[in-house]
Amino acid sequence: MSAFLGVEASLTGRRWVGPEPAATRKAEALAQSTRLPLALCSVLARSGVEPEGVEDYLAPSLRALLPDPRGLRDMETAADRLLGALHRRERIAIFADYDVDGGSSAALLLTWLRALGHDATLYVPDRIDEGYGPNEPAMEALARDHRLIVCVDCGTLSHGPIAAAKGADVVVVDHHLGAETLPPALAVVNPNRQDESGDLGHLCAAGVVFLLLVEANRRLREQGTQGPDLMGFLDLVALATVADVAPLIGVNRAFVRQGLRIMAQRGRPGLVALSDVARVDRAPTPYHLGFVLGPRVNAGGRIGAADLGARLLSTTDPFEAQRLAARLDQLNDDRRAIEQAVREEALAQAERRGLDGPLVWAAAEGWHPGVIGIVAARLKEATNRPAVVIALDGAEGKGSGRSVSGVDLGAAIQRLTAEGLLLKGGGHRMAAGLTVARDQLDAAMERLGTLLARQGAGTGGAGDLRLDGLLMPGGATVELIESLDRAGPYGQAAPAPRFAFPSVMVTDARRVGTGHLRLRFGEPGGPQLDGIAFGAFDGPLGAALERPGPGRLHLAGRVEINHFGGRNRVQLRLDDAARA
Description:
This protein has helices at residues 21-34, 38-46, 54-58, 62-65, 75-87, 100-115, 136-145, 159-163, 205-222, 234-243, 251-264, 269-277, 286-303, 308-314, 318-353, 372-383, 409-418, 441-454, 478-485, 540-546, and strands at 16-17, 92-96, 121-123, 148-152, 169-173, 187-189, 360-365, 387-393, 396-402, 424-427, 431-437, 465-466, 499-512, 516-522, 528-533, 553-562, 569-579. The protein is an alpha/beta fold. It has a 5-stranded parallel sheet, with helices on both faces. The model has no long low-confidence stretch (mean pLDDT 94).
């Protein structure tokens, strides 16, 4: 397929790739039959939406998309045991992972139980001292004082630790890939068990917990009791879904769309305090969940006290929320500094090894284990390849990986573990964790690269920029952007639309802030549009556009509404440019 607008190498060295001809024809047909803007129809066509499904796609509802929780194995057993503990006033412990999904899952259960007059014990393991998931000492200790332990966002591969919880029933509510055998828990509710259909494999753990609460509420109604209103819980499900990079398909679209509306009502003290400290001064968007709030919730698990995020999300005390939010905000600043140093070293090492293979990886002694996951994400974004970053400590290394669309990293990591090349490993399609012996490191990474290559990793250009079509400055209106937002939310598996503005003149360009570029473009005497290129001076884009010369340029990026100063203005968030 020829390059879009003939751009084989842009100012940043990327090749532009436009929609397939069949997708273009489908978009034109949709526009004709629905009378919707062509730009919106391009997004719908890309998403495989047929004319008869347009209305439902643009208005995703839980009523239409929420699956029957009983379709998941062990769901009824888990709901019965949870309600039994509630009715018998048994002590319940919630063992949660230390990331946003784990914290949100724990907060869902804590909030639901508290609404029914029952407090539970929260336990979140320390990332460095205990590592991911249940461990035997912790489970033994919890089992001594609790009759029920609910493991959320973890536990599917924890055979030994769950067996160690003698005297207590263990219920696992998870979404990570399961092995051939399940742990000896009373129930393992997980859409990614090997004996599940996989139809709900796109749910994060908080989504699975929400289904558990839906089923528990249904059973309460059968008993003549009204359970808590679960619509008010969707802010937590939305946060987890976006922050855990779950695909925004199916019911996940409804979770996020409805959850953002709930969050905008500012009813949860923890999210209110976190939004305030992060200076989120308007209705939240998926961007805020993934890049503003999510990293702050994660900061406690990365470099601070592991339970800070779950405590913030579950507290009902505004003053405690403010204190926890301030602490997480400071930890997030500290995390950024640590991450930057590791990121620079990891990228330099990966570049020496080569960036054109199916896997990009780096490993070193002394890297903080709490930031390797986010550094892996940065490497993945920079190279369009699965990436693994490993913090070595003596004879072992703990690693974290991030994948690209269409490549199941979790399954490959699990395969390596079964083959004996890893000491531990697991995860899901887009993210995974591992523990590797130092003397097996090179062999394990070579084998991982082979497995990922079989899935197609490394076949796309590292710099390909995918575009949805063309726009002209006069056509980029607030109304158009609002219509594009109807096809959202955008995120994993549903990227925000990018458009090219062909052959325009840059009429003004200047450096702003720390390395950013603000510009104005269009036709002299005709419609003009503002643009912003964040981090432009970290690469060649800033210098090239600050003094663009007399020639015309193709500009590419995402159109958005700039709310600065209380005025709604259209701007282009610039990703790339090329000489026309």
